[in-house]
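Morning. Coffee machine broken again, so started the prediction first thing and wrote up yesterday's gels while waiting. Chain of 363 residues, entered below exactly as on the submission form.
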Amino acid sequence: MIYTRLLPLYEARIFLINYASGVGMNNLLNYVVKHMPSFEDANKCFDMLSELKRRLESSISIDDAQIDLLFTPIRKYSMIDGIPSLIYPCDMLIRRLKNYTIDDFDEFFNVICDEKNWIPSSIVERLLDEPFRCRNPLTTFEAIRRINDSGMIDEEKMKAFQILIDPDRYITIFEQAMRSVASVFQNSAELYAPLIDMYYACYKNQSEMDVFSGTLSNLREKPKKIDVYPSIMAVQHYMVSFVNGSSEELLIFLGTLMDLDEDNPKEKSALNASDRLLQLLKSIGNQSRYMIMCRLSQGPAYGRELAAYLNLSPGTVSQHLSILAGLGLIDVTLDGAKLYYSINREQVQKLIQMQNQVFLGSD
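Came back before lunch.
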């Protein structure tokens, strides 16, 4: 189902992560100025979002040191090839991303407290890329042992140990930070209404399967249930999450300024070989997408590994991956609760044959 309501707690999470990095709402404001349909629309929307920014920053109820504790990333090391990636401590407190779809704030934090004994398992899974499928949660001691034996640097290990030793402290700070910021999103709908209207206009005639086809069309197992939610803080990017690590149920958080038809050059009608080749070469001619293809030629990789490899944000890399997947040049596979990407060698071979046909006149 495609929803039009914003999820205040999810928006608060992204805002606080951006605030901790020094970005805040600058990306959103800059994108609005460049991409709104008219100068008048851009000015009006910019003013409204600037007021939202002021309210959000004024609502922050914890100090900078506490913000860093929860919303500054921990550098982890993949168990595949040692490529560093980033995980946010706030995400380790939540067993499932689907919890952000809970509308009632009290219920949201009650769920976190009820599932507190799963925090050691959550930390190990996220930091060490070890999908945890046991019915019983890991103990704090076992989680500390696994992290201590990992390839993470000592400074980053200590950050994880602090959460494991005193999770109640982190939950308390998280609730204090999230409630105040999420309340602003909940009570300021009039300030971001133009972005929700644009999102609705773009997707009102589409189904959730259309959105899926524009983001993860090459995923081998099609989900049985898809829920799509708008996100103003995601801007022109999207985030996906498989519920309970299963490919049967999928959540997509879609940036309100993301136009799948524009950003994903998927064929809408039959193209001749010359036009199709031009489409493919134009897409992989982008330096970042070219580097992604080069990296994947060495073997599969997770999105965050590619982000670290390219020194780009995960959201930006997701956008590039969506374009490459839409063209059929890469495959997407679910591994536990994570997606990894690989070269579609058959399609790359067809690309080479197409170049021979167009440029050399050979079959």
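The chain has two domains: 1-261, 264-360. Going to sketch it on the whiteboard this afternoon.
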